[in-house]
Structure prediction request, 698 residues.
Amino acid sequence: METISDYFGCLVFDERVMKAKLSSNVYRSLHKTIQRGTKLDPSVADAVAAAMKEWAIANGATHFTHWFQPLTGITAEKHDSFITPAPDGGVIMDFSGKELIRGEPDASSFPSGGLRATFEARGYTAWDPTSYAFIKDKALCIPTAFCSYGGEALDKKTPLLRSMEALNRQAMRILKLFGNTDVKCVHTSVGPEQEYFLVSKELYEQRKDLIYTGRTLFGAKPPKGQEMDDHYFGVIKPRVAAFMEDLNKELWKLGILAKTEHNEVAPAQHELAPIYTTTNIATDHNQLTMEIMQKVAASHGLVCLLHEKPFAGVNGSGKHNNWSMATDTGVNLLSPGETPYENAQFLLFLCAVIKAVDDYQDLLRISVATAGNDHRLGANEAPPAVVSIFLGDELTAILDAIESDKPYEGAKKTNMKLGVDVLPRFPKDTTDRNRTSPFAFTGNKFEFRMLGSSNSIACANIMLNAAVAESLKIYADRLEGAEDFETRLHEMIRKTIKDHKRIIFNGNGYNEAWIKEATEKRGLCNYRTTPDCIPHILDEKNVKMLTGHGVFSMAELRSRCEIQLENYCKTVTIEANTMVDMAKKQILPAVQSYTAELAGGVAAKKAAAPGVVCSYETGLITKLSALTDQIATQTEVLETAVLGLNRAADVQEESVSIRDTILPQMAQLRALADEAETLTAEKYWPFPTYGELLFGVR
Ligand code: ADP
Ligand code: MG
Prediction:
């Protein structure tokens, strides 16, 4: 029987293949580039391209593509076949180093947020050798960065790689100060837990809202939702189990370390978590995972919904971004060490994160802001829109002791003097009891829980890496000049705790009182919606930090701001248009037909037995007629409001008016239609109900 290790990574041009197919010189050179990010020798590229081509063709590939992540949020690819005409009328299979290193897709149809106006329409893709090439759909996919000709990033990978480099630079300065001379680089790792829904494909295809927007825009509450808590970690249904089995197999072939799978809280909701890996690769893998999930679902007669809020009334889907920093020598910098010196180092890195999250809470919020995620954050099923850190009681007590120079009871030591005491290890279960925190320390990593399920994890990690790089830079600047390293270190840790403890909150994040305390007493940001937060990406402190580390240029920041707002406006506008369409063409005709049938029945009854009362029918007819009129009116109101939007000049203004007028009107229309649904005979209702969608997969 074939075992997993027989086929794991069989579609990946990984170390094993490289070692087997490349000469030792070429392998060494490429390996150095992969490990240390050094520039690739161009002569090596031809040799790598030739080996890749040979390997890809042997594994069934006919095409190659530069695979990239434009600002649409999904991945893009343009396939070219390997064929080149041969003089004898046939073809040869060709692939050069030049084709491997650089591509020139037409950039003009990807969002550029104004960069296109200022720069060139064309863009180019550049090979990212730090993420392995792989085969998908008979095409050799080469992970690439995507830039304009002026060098402005048009994708999510470029700033992500820049942010990783920024963090590496600053972390190395700190490690040097602690005497770690053997460390050559520091990278960040991520393990993203991915939530999703599975619904029947047949039912999905009958719902325009799911098809056009990925979420239901109408739907009365079914008799049963998630109130019994009987789905979470429940037995996986056979159809879902078969899907998961195939999914794992496809992911494993692509070298993706799919590890854990279980049912989530809402009916029809599930989760997949991989084993963590370097952030850049984790990001590529998560994009691939979302794509493969949809593909495998289709082959099982299912549809995988990645929207943040596919159904009202039950939980939406998020993505937990488990994040840590580690050295190339295998030391997790967020893990308390064995010696006092390692502890001091751990505390400094911990403080760097605390400071970063407090100083750049707005950027973290921005990094997860989408129209879809606005339905979750703060809705008592996901963390609130206020960013705070959960450290757990033990670590919080240690930090308190350091701040106040008081003895720390837990460790049974007198004073927490850095460089003297050994910190206790934090068992996982004492650090991760709180599920309501947006940013939780979980023993040796932080779990950022605000990401939406369909978000690329690149955005959150760019901001996180950059912000932590900034804290580390400030620390390194101060420490490098210090006469007494230990004293300065101790002072800095104390100062960080004192200045930033407002961001630490170990209580219940769903509690209304917390939001009041956070905003009124602690002065934390509470940007409830996307239009509220996005413009702050251009706040002076944010621009200074992000451009200072070379993560974004000013032009790139302006363009991202515009694209995110534009995306919000387009998303909601499409939803509103879909509602208008469904109301006019499906809901109103259905309710009307049913009312007509009732009326016909009354007429028939009265003809047969003059004098009968028919109060059931007439009551229902009265209610449904009134609702029909209201639905028709509200549909018009919404339609007119959407048409009026196009006159708004500025995208920020437009996003605010969409939030303040369109969304409330959509909610009103939905309420009316949902009421009509509860009164209309099942066979008249024009599309599958919540009950069918949520409980239809067995
Ligand atoms: P849970 O969050 O359910 O307690 P785990 O903590 O075991 O589960 O893991 C959740 C995710 O965190 C997994 O994807 C795992 O690989 C990842 N993870 C574990 N350790 C680290 C780390 N040091 N850095 C980044 N991610 C990690
Ligand atoms: Mg988790």
Q: What stands out?
A: The CA atoms of residues 378 and 384 lie 4 Å apart. Residues 193, 320, 447 surround magnesium ion (ligand 2) (CB under 6 Å).
